[in-house]
Amino acid sequence: MSVSEINLDELLYKASKGNLRSIGKILSYLENPYTMPEGLLEKLAKMAGKAHVIGITGIPGSGKSTLISRLITSLRKRGYRVAVIAIDPSSPISGGALLGDRLRMQEHATDPGVFIRSISSKGLKGGLSLAALTMIEAFDAFGYDKIIIETVGVGQSEVDIMNIANTIVVVTMPGAGDDIQALKAGVMEIGDIYVLNKDDKEDATKTYEYLSFALEKGDIGSSDSSWTPKLVRTSAVMGKGIEDLTQALEDHFNYIKEIGKTKDKLISRRISMIELLAEQFLYEGLKQASKEIDDELRLSAEVGSHIFNTALRLAKKSIDYLPESKKE
Q1: Quick one: which H or E segment has residue 115?
Q2: Are residues 274 and 134 in contact, defined by beta-carbon separation less than 8 angstroms?
Q3: Which of 55, 106, 211, 273 is in Cβ range 3.0-4.6 Å of 165 for a Cys bridge?
C-alpha cells in the first residue's frame, strides 16, 4: 500500500487530534505488516510512551466486559480518554474475531473520548497478537490516557500480559475456589489488583476471605515485593465498587511512576512487539517455502525419510521470502 510520507504525517496529525476516521485507518494499516506504510511504527513510537496500559484478565464468566464498561464510565468522569482492545478467540476458518466491537460496551459507542476495538488473537501462541501490540502503540501515540486490554480468558496470553501492561487486574467471582486453585500456577500469580466481581452473589464473603488469606500468605499476587496487591469487591451489574477499583488503578500507576518502572515496561512491550513481528515474517515465509518445495515435503512425509534435512531446507528456504528492509 503506497502512502506518501506527507499523507502519513497528515493522517497521524489528524489521528492525534482525535479524528476517529484517521485513527481507524491507522489501526487498519497495523493489522497487516506487509501492507503497513513505511516508517509508521517508528513514527508512532516517537509519539508514544505516556499511557497507562491496563491488562484485565481472569476467570471465564467473571463479568470482565461488564466491569470494563463500568470502569470506562468512571475513568471518563475523571477526564481520561480511554481505549479498549478486546482480544477475542480467532475463528479458525477466517482468522477474524468471533465477537465484534459493536457487540460490547455499546453505551460508549457515541462517546468521542472512547475507542473500542475487537481483534482476533490470530491463533498465535501467546494469545496477544501483533495487532494488539501495535494498536497499544497507536492509542498511546494518539493521546489515550488509559489503554485497557481485555484478554481471551485463561491461558498463556495472561502470562504474556505481564510483559505488556503497567497494571494487571485479575477478575474472579464468588464460588470460584476450584478455579482459583487450578489457576494458581499461572494467571492468579500475576495480579497487581484482584477484583471479586459479582459481589452480590452467594458465597461472596467466603471467597473474599479466601482471597484475602491467599494474598496475605503470598500464594497469589505479583512478584513485585514492594507493592502490596489490592483486593477490591465489585458488582459491575449493580455499579458497586467501581470507584474503589478506579482509585486502586490510579494508586498502582502512581507507584510505578514513582519507582521508575514505566520505561522498563515500555521497553519490554516493544521487545515483545518486535519479536512477534519477526515471528509473523518467518511464519509467512514458511508458508510460501512450503508451497515451493511441496513435492519434496510430500515425499519425505510419505516415505518417512530425510525428515530432519527436509525441515532444515524448509527453514532455510523460508528466509528467501522475508520482506525487503524499509526506510525509517
Answers
A1: strand 114-120
A2: no
A3: 55
